[in-house]
Specification:
0% strand, single chain, Na+/H+ antiporter like fold, 318 residues, 13 helices, mainly alpha
Length: 318
């Protein structure tokens, strides 16, 4: 069983890369069109290559249980998180126009990409990424259907169209390649190129996360609201980890999926709700308060929840 400090050593480099992004933005090294272009490069090129490399030819995904249950759980846990967020937001006195819907969306979505990927790889190796990425399909579906409807009142058809993106399409192609056993037929030049782009995905994605967050640091007084921040910490880093670990312990899931849930239970709020709130008439300040608060405290709570989850769920860590 890894010690707290061994787990912390996996977490700190992740946050250090986010810090590099913050510094790069504050020093005006990445801004304006460069920021937009680099985000597009990560989302449309590097991350799809990471997905393809992690899924195509991954033996853990030869099991039907690792193709069906992960997205169902990803959707279900995100749905429950958003619904719980609505109840908590109403309980602390928020209403439409002051951040009620944005609170629910932001606190309901755990960080499902750039933080858990390097942590899982650090504990169990790169082959562990495949099931997480399939799980994330369900999270994406929940975000662009349930989440978008809660935030903006858009139609279900408008939400579904958001799923037709390079990440989702690449995942479907990679699963098809895996199921058909076509991965060994990919030419060496193809796998080498995909790998070269894939290894850029996580570090560049984390740096761009920091660049995005840095845009909100000019008014530090706006980054903390007592009732919003405390309620978000209690739900995202307190109640939701317990619920997810209960599912991981008692549901008849594969070892790989249990590991995914243990890591997901430890994660802070995702960054994507900040962008969604800006685009669809939400309350971006509320989203920023939740993301920054849970991320900052997460530096210490992630190793604690990981250690507790690994022991209680019974998923071995070398």
């Amino acid at each position: 069983m890894p010690t707290f400090f061994q787990l912390l050593s996996l977490v700190v480099p992740v946050f250090a890369l986010i810090g590099v992004g913050v510094a790069a933005r504050r020093l005006h090294w990445i801004e304006g069109d460069a920021e937009t272009s680099l985000i597009r490069l990560v989302v449309n090129v590097c991350y799809p290559c990471l997905i393809f490399e992690s899924v195509a030819g991954n033996p853990a995904l030869n099991s039907a249980g690792n193709l069906v249950l992960p997205p169902l759980l990803g959707f279900g846990v995100t749905f429950l998180g958003i619904r719980a967020g609505l109840l908590v937001a109403k309980g602390i006195g928020l209403h439409v126009g002051t951040g009620l819907r944005t609170f629910a969306l932001t606190v309901g979505i755990t960080n499902y990409g750039y933080l858990p990927l390097p942590i899982m790889e650090g504990i169990w190796g790169p082959e562990s990424r495949g099931v997480l990425l399939v799980h994330n399909v369900g999270v994406e579906v929940a975000i662009w259907t349930v989440g978008l409807l809660v935030l903006s009142g858009q139609s279900l058809a408008e939400g579904w169209r958001k799923l037709l993106n390079p990440v989702f399409i690449t995942l479907l192609v990679a699963i098809a390649v895996n199921v058909a056993g076509l991965a060994p037929l990919i030419p060496k030049v193809g796998t080498t190129t995909i790998h070269a782009l894939a290894v850029c995905g996580i570090p560049l994605g984390l740096i761009m996360t920091g660049v995005n967050l840095a845009n909100y640091l000019n008014e530090p007084r706006e980054l903390f609201d007592a009732k919003v921040s405390v309620a978000a910490l209690a739900l995202r880093l307190g109640l939701m980890p317990v619920l997810i670990l209960l599912l991981a312990r008692y549901l008849p899931l594969s070892l790989e999926l249990k590991r995914v849930l243990v890591v997901q239970a430890a994660m802070p709020a995702a960054v994507v709700p900040i962008i969604i709130a800006r685009l669809y008439g939400g309350h971006p300040r509320t989203a920023v308060q939740i993301v920054l608060g849970t991320t900052a405290i997460g530096i210490l709570t992630i190793p604690l929840w990981l250690r507790a989850g690994l022991a209680w769920v019974g998923v071995a860590a070398p």
